[in-house]
Every structure is written in structure tokens, then in C-alpha cells.
TrEMBL record:
One of its GO terms (molecular function) is quinone binding. Pfam families: adh_short_C2. This is Shikimate 5-dehydrogenase. Belongs to the short-chain dehydrogenases/reductases (SDR) family.
């Protein structure tokens, strides 16, 4: 691994207490980035930051934030700048899912998912871009990285609101790329399929609860058999390389792209 590849990148990552956000933070820091880990679960973010600092390449700090609150987004950006001097990259990763069939969706389900997955991404992008614009143009682009999903592209009947929220992430990636290019800010994203994390473990149970699957583990089996070209589920380690690429100068000439890391699900 090139331990200098992300040197000089100061990165804010939301939802970095566990799952893919934590894995990304560790991988970025191992390549020299300084990382600010934002999460509503401050203890989890703190533990991840301590693990990173114990390894001793890029540095890490943890902040408690609810991504749905503008003030918390602003404070997380400020914490990144005050600790590391400036912010170069924002990764908007915090997200959740709660499956419902179309006719069972209610306002609570809608608001919960849309607020955390989509509204919060817009707030995070805006507050991060505001700081980047204030910092002035550098020789290299600033980067905003949005976490989408296979659900940014497929109408999955059991998770309509999640799909709506993640199609929204794709729209924010396209619109942000157009709106922010004049400030030398690129906007890209990546879209996982099935990644074994606490989010998926809960989803697997919830799919049985709503009657979409008969037993736990069935969703994994059905998707691998029917939808994936690479015949296995994925893990955070399958995702971190693409995320690091989007963070690095290797992706400087890209904007408005959502890269699928989904075992070929999106072509099915
Ligand atoms: N796991 C998958 O199969 C999968 C597939 C496609 C996309 N994704 C997306 O990847 C991203 C990360 O998912 P994951 O599987 O690692 O999830 P996860 O549940 O393991 O981690 C999500 C993190 O976000 C934090 N979070 C939740 N609500 C928050 C809020 N309001 N404010 C701040 N932090 C909050 C949680 O505390 C947690 O640490 C999400 O956007 C998710 O939609 C996941």
C-alpha cells in the first residue's frame, strides 16, 4: 500500500463509527489522510478514531453529529478545519434503511429515510462546499463523495423509500457536479450492492418481519443467485479501494460519476 497516496488530504466522513464509513476512514488514514469521523454514535466514532491514531499514519478525530441537522454539519466541518488546517474532501456516507412495501409506507418511514439519506447529504455537501469556496481555489480539486446504492438505479419493491432517497443521492451528485465545478469542486459517488455491515444485518431481519423473506439469510442467498454476476456478497474491504480512488488525485478529472461496486447487480 502507498502510505503517502492521500497525504495532504483532510477528509470529513459522516457515519464513520462503524460499517463502511469506519472501514473507509481507516483505509484513508493508512494512506496518509487526516480524517474527521462524524457519527450520531459518538462512542463508536471515538473508538474508530483511537484505532486509527494507534496505527500512527494519518490522524483522526471524532465528532458527535446528527447529519440531519445543519448546525452539526457546520460544526463537523469547523472541527476538521480547526484540527487539520483545511478541508479537502467530504464523504457523505451516513445512511439507514427500513423496508416497507409501497402501500405500507407512512410519513414516519418516509421522513426518517429521506432525512438521513438525502436531506443530510444535501446539507453536508452545502456546508462542506461553503468552506471549500471560502478557502479559495487550489491547484487540485476539492472533492465531495456521495454514497449511493444499487437502489440509486433499481426499483426494489421492498424498499421504495430507500430507493427514492438513493436516486436522490444520484441527483445530488449530478446537480452538485454542475453547480460546483466553477469552484474547482468535483462531485462523485460510489454505489454498493450487498455489503455485510450492521445496516444489512438489521435489514435482513426486517425483511423477514415485513414478510418479504421467509427466513434470515434468505435475502443474501436470493440476491447472490438471481442478481449478482460475482457470486458472493461483499464486505467493506471490497469498497474501500474505490472510495480511496475517488479521494485521491487519480480521480481529479472525474466529476458527476456514480461508480457501482455491486458485483454486477446493476447490469442485471
Ligand atoms: N450495507 C449495504 O449493503 C449498503 C449497500 C448500498 C449502500 N449502502 C450505504 O452505505 C452507507 C453506509 O452503510 P453501512 O452499511 O456501512 O451502514 P451502518 O449502519 O453499518 O453504518 C452507518 C453509520 O451511520 C451512522 N448514522 C446513522 N444515522 C445517523 C445520523 N442521523 N447522523 C450521523 N450518523 C448517523 C450510524 O450510527 C452508523 O455508524 C449508507 O449510506 C448506506 O445506505 C449500504
Amino acid at each position: 500500500m502507498d502510505t503517502e497516496r492521500l497525504k495532504g488530504k483532510n477528509v470529513l466522513i459522516t457515519g464513520a463509527g462503524r460499517g463502511m464509513g469506519a472501514a473507509n476512514a481507516e483505509h484513508f488514514a493508512a494512506q496518509g489522510a487526516n480524517v474527521c469521523l462524524g457519527d450520531i454514535d459518538e462512542g463508536a466514532a471515538q473508538e474508530t478514531a483511537e484505532r486509527i491514531n494507534a496505527k500512527g499514519n494519518g490522524r483522526a478525530i471524532a465528532v458527535r453529529m446528527d447529519v440531519t441537522e445543519r448546525e452539526d454539519n457546520r460544526a463537523a466541518v469547523e472541527a476538521t478545519v480547526s484540527e487539520f488546517g483545511m478541508i479537502n474532501v467530504g464523504v457523505f456516507n451516513a445512511g439507514l434503511n427500513k423496508p416497507r412495501f409501497f402501500m405500507d409506507i407512512d410519513e414516519d418511514n418516509w421522513d426518517l429515510i429521506m432525512n438521513v439519506n438525502t436531506k443530510a447529504m444535501w446539507l453536508g455537501m452545502q456546508e462542506t462546499a461553503r468552506q471549500m469556496i471560502a478557502q479559495g481555489k487550489q491547484d487540485y480539486p476539492y472533492k465531495l463523495i456521495n454514497v449511493g446504492s444499487i437502489a440509486s438505479r433499481k426499483p426494489l419493491v421492498d424498499v421504495t423509500v430507500y430507493c427514492t432517497s438513493k436516486y436522490g443521492c444520484l441527483a445530488l451528485t449530478h446537480c452538485g457536479a454542475v453547480a460546483l465545478s466553477e469552484h474547482n469542486i468535483t462531485v462523485n459517488g460510489y454505489a454498493p450492492g450487498v455489503v455485510v455491515t450492521p445496516l444489512w444485518e438489521q435489514l435482513d431481519k426486517d425483511l423477514v418481519d415485513i414478510g418479504f423473506k421467509q427466513k434470515e439469510g434468505q435475502a443474501y442467498e436470493d440476491i447472490v443467485r438471481d442478481a449478482l454476476q460475482i457470486k458472493r456478497v461483499s464486505y467493506p474491504d471490497d469498497v474501500i479501494g474505490t472510495a480511496a480512488f475517488l479521494c485521491s488525485s487519480d480521480s481529479d478529472y472525474m466529476t458527476g460519476q456514480m461508480i457501482h461496486i455491486d458485483g454486477g447487480w446493476c447490469i442485471q
